[in-house]
Write a structure and sequence with these properties.
A five-stranded parallel sheet has the order 6-5-4-10-11, with helices on both faces. α1 crosses α3. It is 50% helix and 12% strand. The mean pLDDT is 93. The longest helix has 26 residues. The protein has 556 residues and is α/β, with parallel strands linked by helices.
């Protein structure tokens, strides 16, 4: 019996009791929260639903809890219930009822834990979106890891997900990048506000090589013509490098959207006119303003400057509407810590269009990444100069360790990455610890097959009766709830943290319970059941690692 089944059962009981206790069905939560007690002396599962509903029902929490337990005691597979403390309902399951989870996991396979909770929602997730003026830096790498993982999690919960990268090819930074490329090619000083680093020279040389292949003599072109060529080709080469880097990092996108398209297609003007029709813009000092203070912003925002050119914010407005027109019911935007001041104006814009800030548009602000090696902070990149790149991290520890370490920390916290730790084969290295657990399940499986202890779907769930069996089953049962929470709370770090808990539980179980009989022992029903339990752990570890974009190795 899973916590989801218990939740549904308790909800059904409350529905049957509703008339007696004075509750309406709409006051009963759609999902009754069922959790693993901190102390195993308090049962296999526990719920505080009686304390939640007691006031609405006009009944003492313990009295309501007693009514619930009296019904639960009649259910097959439940051995014991108790009312504890102010009104907790504690539940003990028969070994067979708990062990049946193994069969559920093995039958579901890769879809165990998945749901349709977000079915019908089309979620557009925009992340990374670094300017095409240099390699992906470490912060951008974090957004690539957490953004891609979040997309996988949302899809696992039934959402239609679009992964989007916003290609800013309209701003002044492109002009500065172009001038930097030309300067490096011509052997002159890079402009003071330009871009340094070895990569600029590398791109400049590649642009020159392409011109030569095309029969273009750049030396005979005007400076304007040279800059136009370097702008087009150099930006394209740089952006291709970014795409290649992200692909190697297992962060692929469905859409690469070019900002310039918003201006050339008329989308900016259309969005402004829609706001005008809603009565939420005005003219002042020759400029056009959004009444953003009406929706909680600290000041009104210019969307058309006095010279008639769109302000930077105008493109943001048009982009929001464009995503909606492409079918997005929810837009999630993952930004770096330097974008805190961006939130109010974007939410105000969302509200001005009739949307729900935090729902129609949700902005997630992430924190920075610190890199250490030999106890010293790493600050310099060989290729990019002063900026540490994603490639630097991947070169140092590999894709698996890089992705895992960037995902396992909550986005609102700074990530401190110790390169020496991530290179180590020790239990202190979290990604190694989890991957090793998966490899161990595979090794146990291979050895069990040789010994004739097969995972063929036929096992006696009641033999999974030891405390270690029960503890491991309890951890496995928590995975669907963790996945739902990760999706609903936009907290992808919940998955690797859960995997570490599962790995710890598995290693403890492995040291206490035998899957393969000793040479002088016969194969028993308990051996077979534990072979199946081992396979269930393997499956859940593989599922969770897949969500993180991390390989589940069979050997290490």
């Amino acid at each position: 019996m899973t916590p989801e089944e218990l939740s549904a059962l308790i909800r059904e009981i409350l529905g049957n009791l509703s008339e007696e206790i004075g509750l309406t069905t709409d006051t009963i939560p759609a999902t009754v929260k069922v959790e693993r007690p901190r102390s195993r002396g308090n049962g296999d599962w526990s719920t505080n639903i009686a304390m939640q509903l007691a006031k609405k029902a006009g009944i003492a929490p313990r009295d309501l809890a007693t009514k619930i337990t009296s019904q639960l005691d009649k259910v097959e597979g439940i051995t014991k219930t108790e009312v504890a403390g102010p009104g907790f309902v504690n539940i003990w399951l028969e070994a067979g009822a708990a062990g049946a989870l193994v069969g559920i996991i093995l039958q579901a396979g890769k879809t165990y834990g998945h749901s349709q909770d977000l079915s019908g929602k089309h979620v557009n997730v925009e992340y990374v979106s670094a300017n095409p003026t240099g390699p992906i830096h470490l912060g951008g790498g974090r957004w690539a890891a957490v953004g891609d993982t979040l997309c996988r999690i949302l899809a696992a919960c039934g959402a239609e997900v679009t992964r989007e990268y916003y290609f800013n090819d309209h701003g002044a930074q492109i002009s500065r990048f172009t001038k930097s490329l030309v300067a490096r090619w011509q052997g002159t000083e890079v402009p003071e506000d330009g871009y340094g680093g070895q990569y600029v020279l590398d791109i400049a040389n590649r642009v020159a090589e392409q011109a030569k292949k095309e029969g273009i003599e750049l030396e005979n072109r005007t400076q304007t013509q040279v800059e136009e060529y370097f702008r087009e080709v150099g930006t394209g080469l740089m952006f291709q490098e970014i795409k290649d880097c992200l692909h190697s990092f297992r962060a692929d996108f469905d859409v690469f959207f070019h900002e310039d398209e918003l201006h050339t297609s008329g989308a900016v003007n259309d969005a402004i006119e829609e706001l005008r029709s809603r009565g939420v813009i005005y003219e002042q000092d020759g400029a056009t303003w959004l009444k953003s203070t009406k929706y909680g912003d600290d000041k009104d925002r210019v969307i058309l400057k006095s010279d008639g050119d769109p302000a930077y914010f105008a493109a943001d407005i048009a982009y929001y509407r464009d995503k909606q027109r492409r079918g997005a019911t929810e837009e999630i935007l993952i930004l770096g810590a330097d974008h805190h001041g961006y939130i109010d104006r974007m939410y105000a814009m969302c509200a001005a269009f009739g949307g729900q800030p935090g729902e129609s548009l949700e902005i997630i602000i992430g924190q920075m990444v610190n890199l250490k090696e030999n106890g010293v902070e790493v600050k310099m990149s060989k290729r990019a100069g002063t900026v540490i790149t994603l490639d630097d991290l991947v070169d140092a520890v590999g894709v698996d360790a890089a992705r895992y370490s960037l995902v396992r920390v909550s986005m609102d916290s700074t990530v401190d990455i110790d390169l020496d730790l991530l290179r180590s084969h020790s239990n202190e290295n979290p990604v190694y610890y989890v991957q090793y657990a998966h490899a161990r399940t595979c090794s146990v499986g291979r050895n069990a097959d040789e010994a004739g202890v097969l995972a063929d779907g036929k096992y006696d769930a009641s033999t999974l009766s030891s405390p270690a069996d029960n503890e491991l089953l309890g951890i496995l049962a928590q995975y669907p709830a963790e996945l739902k929470l990760a999706a609903n709370e936009r907290e992808p770090h919940r998955i690797p943290r859960y995997l570490e808990k599962l790995a710890a539980g598995y290693h403890t179980w492995y040291n206490q319970c035998r899957v393969i009989p000793r040479s002088d022992e016969e194969i028993t029903a308990a051996h077979v059941a534990r072979r199946h339990l081992n396979e269930a752990v393997r499956q859940v570890l593989a599922n969770g690692l897949e969500l993180c974009g991390v390989v589940a190795p069979e050997r290490m």
